[in-house]
Every structure is written in structure tokens, then in C-alpha cells.
Specification:
The complex is a heterodimer of chains A (217) and B (174).
Chain A lengths: L4 H14 L8 H24 L2 H4 L5 H24 L10 H9 L1 H15 L10 H25 L5 H20 L8 H22 L1 H4 L2
Chain B lengths: L4 H12 L3 H20 L4 H17 L11 H22 L24 H5 L3 H12 L4 H8 L3 H18 L4
Helix pairs in contact in B: 1-2, 2-3, 3-4, 4-8, 6-7, 6-8, 7-8
The chains are: A mainly alpha (217), B mainly alpha (174).
Chain lengths: 217, 174
């Protein structure tokens, strides 16, 4: 077996000489950064794109409240997990994000069921021409969260870059959709379930494909 | 030097504050721990490089240690990541020439078995473990491993690929 006293001692000397004070990454610091990214997305949606009329008039639709709440919870749960992943630790078990996804999946499933029941009872297949805007804008607004979390992960040491990328995408998509829902005037579950849910799916796929290479160490 | 968990955690917290003396005491202790940790899971000719790579990662990722948590599970996560990464690199480069006898050290690092590398393999199907161990750790060729296990050569390759992918997902869990 090879011995390595000289090389390793030399390396250790170099590392010691290179040491600088390094504040540890904290969960609260990461969540604060994620909160700022979410706030920026909300400000762009409300002040840049425009707030929906009923909200501006102080009226709150129950479907809007319910769906926005689910997207917000999904964003919080996935961002929390991403930030935890930046600080590795054998014995970590993060399953909260999976439950949040299951909870948020209620929306697209409900949308799909509404659609199917409508067709079965003789309704027509109405194509929502506005839906793609929600898809594009929700994904675009989520890019702020994606960038913030990716930078955070680069400072940390995620041991599963693929899962970290996927979760970053989910956090980004759900944040973007939460923000854009403040503009989107639709309250029907079919629109929200399909198009708003699709924005989260698209962001997740993008996150899974693009982010791992940026955070590998 | 065999330092206990509490001492290592305290030295690491001091190192994060920029204390070079603490860091100079911590790194050789980590080096010894890593040598024992990797000894049974990597060929002797790769041990030196893997320990140094892991020390470099420790240095670059100092900020990712949470001083309110134990130190060794953090170091083990960094070490596991570097180990799986090395296995993947060997797999990608198709380098299967590992010479020398395997020296199995009798003493397991003095910490919970939870952070041992063996626990990762325990989570994999036996066919994947056999393929990875024979080709990536013991240095057999794919065809030699195929003859030894009775798996076809393409199945050996598939099992290595799937096993390494699964190991990545398990680094912190198992």
C-alpha cells in the first residue's frame, strides 16, 4: 500500500494557510434569501404586470385562496428541503417535500376530473387560449427563485445534485405560479389545475435537467 | 491521533471562525479517519488521491457544516459523495486496472455504524453490489465479473450504472 506523508502534509499545510473565516450556512439565512426571491417575483407580478381586479377590489375568491395556498406551501416545503440539502449529514431524511407535492397534486387531479365529468355529461372540450400565458409567466417568474436557490446550493455541498435540481425547479415553479396567480383572473379549477400545475411540472423538469451540472462539486 | 466526536466538532467550529491552529489539528485527524473509512472500499492505489480529494472538498465546503450538529456524519456525507464520484469517474473512464492486494483493516472507525460505507451497499440489490465490488473495487474486468457472477456482460454494465445512480441518491439516507 502506498504511503503519502509528504503529499498529504503539504496539502494540509496549504489548506491551513488558505483558511479564512467561513460563516456556516444556516437554514434561516437560506429561507430569508428564498423569501426575498419570492417577494421580488410577487412585486413584478403585482406592480409590473398588474394585480387581478377582484383582489384590487378587496374580494377574495375561495378557489384562488385555496390554490394559492397550496402553491405557497409547496414552494415553502421544497425551498426548505433544498436549503437543508446544502448542508449534508448522514442520517438526513427529507420527506416533507413529497407530501407537499402530493397535496398540490390535488389541483391538477381535480382539474382533470372536472374536465372528464364535463365531457361525460355532454359538455364540449373548451381549449383555454389564455392558459399558455400562465405557463410561460409562471415559469419565468420562478426563475428568480431558481437562481437564488442555485446560488445557495453552490455555496453548500448537496450530495444528490439531481434531487436538489428537481426540488429547486419545484420551488421555482410553485413560487412563480403563486406570484402570477395574483394577476391571472381565472378562478376555475380546470384552468388552475392544468396550466398552473403545468408551470410547476415544466419548472421541475428544467430544474432536474439544468441545475445539477451547476451545483456539482 | 484519534479524536472524539466532540473534539472534532469543536475544532471544526473554531476553524470556521478562522482559527488556523484548530484547523491544523483537525485536518490530520480527518485524514486518519478518512484513510480508515475508505480502506475497505477503494483500491490501495486510489486511497491516497481519494483522501486528498476529500480533504480538499472539506476545505471548499467548510460553510456547509452546521456547528450545532455532530461533525462525523457531515464528514461521512462529504466522504461518501467523493467515493461515489470516484466510482462513477472510474466507470465513465472505463478504467478497471486496480493492482495490489486488498488490505482490510480490522478496526471500523470509532463511530456509529450508521455512517459506514457498507450501509450504502446494504441498500442495493445484491447483483448491483456484486457488479460494483468486482469491477470498480476489486478491479476485475467486466468479462471476469460476468464469469464470476453468472450475469451477462451487458447486465454487469447495467448493474454498475444503476447501482452507482442509486448510491448517489442514498448518500445521506442509508
Amino acid at each position: 500500500m502506498k504511503t503519502m506523508p509528504n503529499r498529504s502534509e503539504g496539502l494540509i499545510d496549504l489548506l491551513v494557510a488558505d483558511l479564512k473565516p467561513t460563516p456556516p450556512l444556516t437554514q434561516s439565512g437560506g429561507m430569508a434569501r428564498a423569501g426575498l426571491a419570492a417577494l421580488a417575483a410577487i412585486c413584478i407580478a403585482v406592480f409590473g404586470i398588474g394585480i387581478r381586479r377582484d383582489l384590487a377590489a378587496g374580494q377574495l375568491d375561495p378557489v384562488f385562496l385555496l390554490s394559492s395556498g397550496l402553491f405557497l406551501l409547496l414552494a415553502c416545503a421544497s425551498a426548505w428541503s433544498v436549503i437543508q440539502m446544502s448542508r449534508p449529514h448522514v442520517g438526513n431524511h427529507q420527506t416533507g417535500w413529497a407530501w407537499a407535492i402530493a397535496m398540490a397534486a390535488v389541483l391538477p387531479v381535480s382539474g382533470l376530473l372536472t374536465w372528464v365529468v364535463s365531457l361525460a355529461s355532454g359538455g364540449t372540450l373548451a381549449v383555454d387560449g389564455e392558459g399558455w400565458k400562465c405557463l410561460v409567466m409562471g415559469t419565468a417568474l420562478g426563475a428568480l427563485m431558481a437562481a437564488g436557490l442555485t446560488l445557495w446550493l453552490r455555496r453548500g455541498a448537496p450530495t444528490s445534485p439531481e434531487r436538489a435540481g428537481l426540488l429547486t425547479g419545484i420551488a421555482a415553479g410553485s413560487t412563480g405560479m403563486f406570484a402570477f396567480a395574483l394577476h391571472c383572473p381565472h378562478n376555475d379549477i380546470a384552468h388552475i389545475g392544468l396550466w398552473h400545475g403545468l408551470a410547476v411540472v415544466v419548472s421541475s423538469v428544467l430544474g432536474r435537467l439544468l441545475i445539477p451540472s451547476a451545483i456539482r462539486w | 491521533m484519534i479524536a472524539d466526536e466532540a473534539t472534532l466538532a469543536r475544532l471544526m467550529a473554531m476553524a470556521q471562525r478562522g482559527d488556523r491552529e484548530a484547523y491544523a489539528a483537525l485536518l490530520p485527524a480527518c485524514q486518519s479517519w478518512l484513510k480508515r473509512y475508505f480502506a475497505r472500499r477503494i483500491g490501495p492505489c486510489e486511497l491516497d488521491d481519494l483522501v486528498q480529494e476529500t480533504l480538499l472538498s472539506l476545505h471548499r465546503k467548510l460553510a456547509s457544516y452546521d456547528p450545532s450538529r455532530p461533525f462525523l456524519p457531515w464528514l461521512a456525507a462529504i466522504a461518501r459523495y467523493r467515493w461515489v464520484d470516484l466510482l462513477r469517474k472510474i466507470y465513465k473512464a472505463n478504467e478497471v486496472e486496480i493492482d495490489g492486494d486488498f488490505e482490510a483493516l480490522p478496526d471500523e472507525p470509532g463511530i456509529s455504524a450508521r455512517i459506514s460505507l457498507e450501509r450504502l451497499f446494504a441498500q442495493l440489490p445484491s447483483a448491483q453490489v456484486a457488479a460494483i465490488e468486482m469491477v470498480k473495487i476489486e478491479g476485475l474486468t467486466v468479462s471476469e465479473a460476468s464469469r464470476a457472477t453468472g450475469q451477462s456482460e451487458s447486465l454487469i454494465k447495467v448493474n454498475i450504472h444503476r447501482g452507482l445512480k442509486r448510491l448517489t441518491a442514498l448518500i445521506e439516507k442509508a
